Amino acid sequence: MKTSKFSNTQKLVILALLTAIVVILQLFGAMIRFGPFSVSLVLMPIAIGAALVGVYAGGWLGLVFGCIVLMSPDTNLFWAINPVGTVTVVILKGVLAGLAAGAAYKIFARKNMTAAAIAAAAVCPIVNTGVFLIGAYVFFLPAITQWGAAAGYASAGTYIIFVMVGVNFLFEFCLNLVLSPVIVRLIQYGLKMKVS
């Protein structure tokens, strides 16, 4: 399948709309919690932006997502432990999730747009959570070990998986997969709007 060639104006409009959607959904998502952290509802528009506008658009939307997360109460514990680690992990997880979604879409779109949209939708939460797990290990392991012990968990890894990310990841991953038909429709609609 050919990729769309949007005009620069169209790309900016799509990116601006999706940026606003990312901000609104992240602020709204802060009210929905499974465990100690809020869920990320923004991974779907990140995947859509990466598919419609390109890999770097996914990175931009991931950066916006990361900036909003840095300002949320969810990061307060991490700010107190390691501010540099907090900024690094939060920004990297957002940007890399967007870039990975865009790359996954680009790879699969040549053969099947539905598979490409599903791949982008699946890769986004996997990378987001994966980078968080790596960052938690690198920057916050002593504190997380203490939190886990205080909560009665034998290891930091068990605490991270079952308390910090497990349910959130499953919710975000399943939501993206369930909504992937919507992602496909939105991408198809966007491609029909292209300027030749």
Please, could you describe this protein's structure?
- With 196 residues, the protein is an all-alpha fold.
- It has a single domain (8-192), classed as Arp2/3 complex 21 kDa subunit ARPC3.
- Helix content is 79%, strand content 2%.
- It has eight helices and two strands.
- The protein has helices at residues 8-29, 43-52, 55-70, 76-81, 83-109, 113-150, 156-178, 180-192; strands at 33-34, 37-38.
- It has a two-stranded antiparallel ribbon.
Secondary-structure topology with pairs:
Blueprint: H1 8-29, E1 33-34, E2 37-38, H2 43-52, H3 55-70, H4 76-81, H5 83-109, H6 113-150, H7 156-178, H8 180-192
Antiparallel strand pairs: 1-2
Helix pairs in contact: 1-2, 1-3, 2-3, 2-5, 2-6, 2-8, 3-5, 5-6, 6-7, 6-8
In short:
This protein is an all-alpha fold. It contains 8 helices and 2 strands.
